[in-house]
Amino acid sequence: xxxxxxxxxxxxxxxxxxxxxxxxxxxxxxxxxxxxxxxxxxxxxxxxxxxxxxxxxxxxxxxxxxxxxxxxxxxxxxxxxxxxxxxxxxxxxxxxxxxxxxxxxxxxxxxxxxxxxxxxxxxxxxxxxxxxxxxxxxxxxxxxxxxxxxxxxxxxxxxxxxxxxxxxxxxxxxxxxxxxxxxxxxxxxxxxxxxxxxxxxxxxxxxxxxxxxxxxxxxxxxxxxxxxxxxxxxxxxxxxxxxxxxxxxxxxxxxxxxxxxxxxxxxxxxxxxxxxxxxxxxxxxxxxxxxxxxxxxxxxxxxxxxxxxxxxxxxxxxxxxxxxxxxxxxxxxxxxxxxxxxxxxxxxxxxxxxxxxxxxxxxxxxxxxxxxxxxxxxxxxxxxxxxxxxxxxxxxxxxxxxxxxxxxxxxxxxxxxxxxxxxxx
Length: 425
Prior knowledge:
Blueprint: E1 3-8, H1 16-31, E2 35-40, H2 46-57, H3 63-70, H4 72-87, E3 92-95, E4 102-104, E5 113-116, H5 119-126, E6 130-134, E7 137-140, E8 146-148, H6 153-164, E9 169-174, E10 195-197, H7 198-206, H8 214-223, E11 227-231, E12 239-242, E13 247-248, E14 251-252, E15 260-264, E16 267-276, H9 281-291, E17 299-301, E18 310-318, H10 322-331, H11 333-336, E19 340-344, E20 347-353, H12 363-373, E21 380-384, E22 387-393, H13 397-407
Parallel strand pairs: 1-2, 1-9, 2-6, 3-6, 4-7, 9-11, 10-12
Antiparallel strand pairs: 4-5, 7-8, 11-12, 13-14, 15-20, 16-18, 16-19, 17-18, 20-22, 21-22
Helix pairs in contact: 1-4, 6-8, 7-8, 12-13
Domain ACT: 270-346, 352-425
Binding site for substrate: 47, 74
Protein name: Aspartokinase
C-alpha cells in the first residue's frame, strides 16, 4: 500500500460530528496499510464569517492581515481533526501550510504555489503518524508572509502535496458522490460520471463546475496525479479524473461523447463602445485590463460600422473584478479613444463539454436547437475543440442547462443525485 492524500472540504468538517466521521475514514485508510496525508478546509462557513467580520472592521483590509485572518479557519479544523484521530488510538500531527512546505508567490488572497518542500511531512509519515495539513494557505518565497490561494485553494494544496510526495492518488472528499453531468442542485436527474479525462474536467471546471478547482486539475494533469472525487457522507465509488481510462471490476470505463453541462453566474460583461477599428486598439484595451491584474474569459468584437469606422468590443470577467476593470478603462480613455462603457452583471454562461464533439458532426446544431426550443437568447459565443460556451441572461441559465442536458441524453433514469451538505463542495 502506498501514500494517499485525502482532502476534506468545509461541509465535511462542518461540526464536531462531521470531524469525528472524517477521522474514522482517515483511520480506516491507515489501517488498510496506507501512509495518509490529509488536507482540510475551514469548518462549514467559517471563511465566509471571517470575511464578513473583516469587512465590518475595515472596508478594504490590507492583504497581508486579511490572509493572516483567513488562515485561522483551517488551523482550527486541522487541530480538531488531529485530536479526533488521536482519540481513535492513532497518532496524528497537524501542520500549517508554511510548516508543510507550501511555498507561494507574494500575491495576497490569490497566491500561486511555486514549490512544495514537505520535509516535515515526510518525517511525520516515517514516524508512523498521520499528517494533517491546513489547506488554502502557504508562505511567500520572498517575504515569508502567510498567503492564501483563493477560494477552493485546499484542492490545489492537496494535489500539490500529492505530487511532491509521489502519492498514488489524491482523494477529494466533498458533499456529492462525484462529478456529475450537471450541477445536481439545478438538474435533479444529473448522472454521476465514473471516469473523466483531465482535459474535459479542466473545461468543466473553467466553465463553472464547482466540484474541482481549475488550478487543482491543471496541477494534477501536469504531474499526472489521479484524482478520486468522493463523498465523505457515503461509501459510494466516486469519479476518477486521470489521463487514461481506468478499469472498474472487469470492464474499462470509456469516455462519453459529451461529458457534461456546466454553468456560471459569477461573471459580468463589459462592452467598450465606439472603439476605433484600427490595429493596436484591442491590444491597448487588454493591456489595460492585464495591468490591473484582471483575468478575462470570453471576448467578442463586432464588425465595424462602415460610416464611422468604429466597433464595439465585449468581454466577460468575474463580477468581483468589474469595478476595477471599469476604473482602469476610464483612466485610460484618452489613450484608447472609446466613446463609452457598458457594464452588465445579470448574465450567465452555459457550456457543453466533451472530447467527442470534435469527431461527431451535429453537436453544435443540437446545442443551439435546444437553447432555441427553450426560448433562450444568446448574447456571446465561444468555442474550443471540446467546449461550446454561450452567454445569456442570468434568469435563463437554469432552464437552459436543463434543456441542453436533456437534449444530449444525459438525464439519469435512476435515482436523483444527492447533495449531502447542500453546497456542492
